[in-house]
């Protein structure tokens, strides 16, 4: 068994078995390997199992730094930081996949300039030398291999809609996606799906008729898919899905051929952070060649160069790919948080999909 496989297996066991049920705020401590001079306070809406290899590798370069990692769901982190940014807060780093929420915080003056404008990563992954994306994460369709016949695997949204219409009873109650009313990343993906025109309304309609199961978190949906309680997952984070496959889950990960949304989870250092120098060093590590290589080796399989991921059914996604739809970290994301637009999208979603259902409910 290769080292990379063991790393992936460990990651997914932690993600799928250790975190599936609890969604309370959790705190994890990473003591400094050497004599501790600094203790960073990192608040994140990212599973600690995914970040652990990166934190520990950073600490190999800075053995004087300890890290306290507080884990939230996206909406809780956003609410916490809106309050913290009004005062000192005691937070050194903020990390989330809901980049629209981070853009709102940065626009409100919450972030420190870091002098890291030349990162080597695509321009769309950073804003104002204050907010920095460090992962390349496509939104994918995931199928349980035992529940979905090979001939039923669909690779575009239109094909998926046709499948659900043609065989509604087979998949009723067995499709999962994010609850956009509680999941920041689910709301972000839906807001960008809505830009695709009529197909978004048809997707919502098809999910509603299929009695879609809704959840806050990728790991919950992947857990239900791996156990066979769900057959199909829509718009899930590809990095977590690939990690599940590498650990032996009976899943097929499909990169949509019509268009593929890609986000870069991002990080910033709040103003008045207690330990700005060490916090900046952690951000610089995540953006560095070493940090990027470690991320791809362990938790985040897809890279910015468009590498082919064997566990994913689909083309490589180089920067010039015609199907690539990156979610740019920019002021454009402020519109996603506009109250009127949010209310309209959530209203359309509720009308089509209905009340949230526990993932895997039949």
Task: Set out the fold topology.
Elements lengths: L2 H16 L7 E5 L7 E8 L2 H14 L3 E7 L2 H11 L8 E4 L2 H9 L18 E2 L3 E3 L3 E8 L12 H10 L1 H4 L3 E4 L5 H10 L4 H12 L3 E3 L2 H10 L4 E6 H9 L4 E4 L5 E4 L2 E3 L7 H12 L1 H10 L13 E2 L10 E3 L12 H15 L9
Parallel strand pairs: 2-3, 2-4, 8-9, 8-10, 11-14, 12-15
Antiparallel strand pairs: 1-3, 4-13, 5-6, 6-13, 7-10, 7-11, 7-12
Helix pairs in contact: 1-10, 2-12, 5-8, 8-13
Task: Describe it.
This protein has two domains: 3-136 and 264-298, D-Maltodextrin-Binding Protein, domain 2 (3-Layer(aba) Sandwich), CATH 3.40.190; 137-262 and 318-353, Periplasmic binding protein-like II (D-Maltodextrin-Binding Protein, domain 2, 3-Layer(aba) Sandwich). It has 13 helices and 15 strands. It has helices at residues 3-18, 48-61, 74-84, 99-107, 157-166, 168-171, 184-193, 198-209, 218-227, 238-246, 276-287, 289-298, 339-353, and strands at 26-30, 38-45, 65-71, 93-96, 126-127, 131-133, 137-144, 175-178, 213-215, 232-237, 251-254, 260-263, 266-268, 312-313, 324-326. Strands 7, 8, 9, 10, 11, 12, 14 and 15 form an eight-stranded mixed beta sheet that branches. Helix 8 (198-209) packs across helix 13 (339-353). The longest helix is centred in the first third of the chain and has 16 residues, at 3-18.
